[in-house]
Amino acid sequence: MRDNFEGSATEPQFDGFFRSHGDLDTTAQCIVEPATGATIRYTTSRNRWQGHSPRIREIRASANLANDLRPACWIRFDVIEAGRVAVTNDDFCYACDVVSHSLEQLASGLVETAAEDISRVLERGPIIYFEGLELRHDLQGSRLGVVVARYLLDVLVSRHSPALLVLCPYPLQFESRRFEEAIEHAVLQKSEHTLERNRQNLIALFEREFWVSRLGKESDYWGTSLSGFGFIQGPSGWSIYQHGKHSRTESRKSS
Fold first, then answer.
1. pLDDT, tens digit, 9 for 90 and up, residues 130-173
2. 54: cis peptide before it, omega within 30°?
3. What is the mean pLDDT of residues 63-85?
4. What pLDDT is attached to residue 248?
5. Residue 127 carries which DSSP code?
6. Of the candidates 157, 252, 24, 68, the residue with the CA atom closest to the CA atom of residue 239
């Protein structure tokens, strides 16, 4: 199962996927989101890839409202950063493939749509993958999940100075449908219609709240630059650049 977003007309709902991975350990750091008063607890894993490059760390978080012992939402990010040696596109894809299936899909999606080698992106800063957000069902429509996720993202940006944010707006509850063969045709058609409606709702939500755009016409991923970098899309793909400078890759390929 790909660890991505579950959709409703407003924002993702809680479905227990992240909860099934167990509670956060005692080393979790705590921060408070000021607008909602929600307490966010999050942990950062050690490097999940044992090679020299890249370094891949998982950030898992839960948020609780005041006087509520039940988590209101669960959030997961991955931070991918350059290691001690330069990483080729093949190295990047192999490391992500070993760590998880969802990161393997991410790596392929980035390599296929980027205008330059991923090593050039990592030279500017880490890649943050917003892998999942689940909101408790009774809080649907409150925007709590998005508010908390944006606040945690701001904290991670200040600590890691990433160059790129990437996400995949795919409703989690429909993932198993892609692999079921014994579904009646009428049921499958109805499911696909609901999937596409929820997916479009998620796309609109994340474009509005996180200022992302699609990384290529057929890509499953959306992204944007962070930490003061610029983000452009050209005939040969997307690119990250420093403000005041054009992308050398785009200039070279378009000349």
1. 998 988 889 988 899 999 999 999 999 999 999 999 999 876 55
2. yes
3. 92
4. 36
5. E
6. 252
d(CA 251, CA 243) in angstroms, rounded, equals 15
Residue range 173-218, pLDDT digits in tens: 544 444 454 445 555 555 677 778 888 988 999 999 999 999 999 9
**Pairwise CA distance, residues 135 & 167, whole Å:** 17
pLDDT of residue 129: 97
* Percent of the chain surpassing pLDDT 90: 60
Number of H helices, E strands in the chain: 6, 10
Which residue reads 């050039």 in tokens? Answer: 120
Q: Residue 210 carries which side chain, given as an amino acid letter?
A: F
Q: How many CB atoms lie within 10 A of CB 219?
A: 16
Q: Rounded to whole angstroms, how far apart are CA atoms 31 and 34?
A: 9
The SS3 of residue 151 is: helix
> Rg (Cα) of the chain, in Å, rounded?
18
Structure tokens at 160: 């890691």
Length of the chain in terms of residues written: 255
Confidence of residue 103 (pLDDT cuts 50, 70, 90): very high
The domains of the chain are located at: 19-254
Between vectors from CA 130 to CA 223 and to CA 58, what angle results, nearest 5°? 135
- Residue 65 CB: number of other CB atoms within 10 A? 20
Backbone angles phi, psi at 63, to 5 degrees: -130, 135
Could you give the 3-state DSSP secondary structure of residue 234?
strand
Task: State both tokens at 22.
Answer: 């167990």
13 Cβ partners below 8 Å, 6+ apart?
6, 7, 134, 135, 136, 137, 140
